[in-house]
Amino acid sequence: MELGLQNKVAIITGSSKGIGYQTALQLAQEGAQVVLVARGEKQLKVAANSIKDETGQSPLIVPADVSKEKECKMIIEKTMATFGQIDILVNNAGTSSAHQFELVSSELWQSDLDLKLFGAVNCAKYATPYMRQNGGGSIVNIIAVLAKTPPASSLPTTVSRAAGLALTKAMSKDLGKDNIRVNAVCIGLIRSDQIEKRWKAEAPDVTWEEYSVNVGEQIPLSRIGDTIEASNVITFLASEAASYVTGTAINVDGGSSAVL
């Protein structure tokens, strides 16, 4: 399948590791120029060097905190100064913050919304004029699948992510006329640094494959997912192969969600 990503310019937030890094690597492998964004410059340099070793491409790195609007604007300005266009924005930055309702302070509510909701809003706000100028583009918002069915003690993260789903649908309606597609990928249990630390702490004597099956026994596909399984879907939605797909949210969760 031809993805049509050659010479496209893609910004991926939260891309120093995990799903964000794997997505940036995959987009670079498909011929896109990638912009890596995260708060930690040291880890960004490691990620950029790894992508260069794998693909020969030299990513632009932009250390930034997307919870701050002025830094979102700076990301877009540096991308335009370097590449002169923006075709793809993957809003992946975020952390897990899950507590009982009574334990969430006003400050935590605000910081979570600033990072996960307004980070996506502000990056898109500054990127879309350049996408429009270039004839269109693709925005992919990375959401937790629990945003669709929030369990107890999952605040504020599930609320911020649920807002991201509404944002995705509303933006797709407003921006479709400009050939800017907006979709979401809803992530379930995917291998990450946090899960690997849990594996090494809980079961250091078993292989990852054994641990994955044990932890994932309640998941219909019976295992924890891999980052490349998430990046495959993100890359497809970012690409020309998904040219008639907008305003949708795809679960990448091994079938664990109770809803479509």
TrEMBL record:
Entry GO MF terms: oxidoreductase activity
Presence of keyword Oxidoreductase: yes
Keyword annotations: Oxidoreductase
GO biological process entries: bile acid metabolic process
A family per Pfam: adh_short_C2
Family, similarity comment: Belongs to the short-chain dehydrogenases/reductases (SDR) family.
Listed name of the protein: Short-chain dehydrogenase
Protein source organism: Lysinibacillus alkalisoli
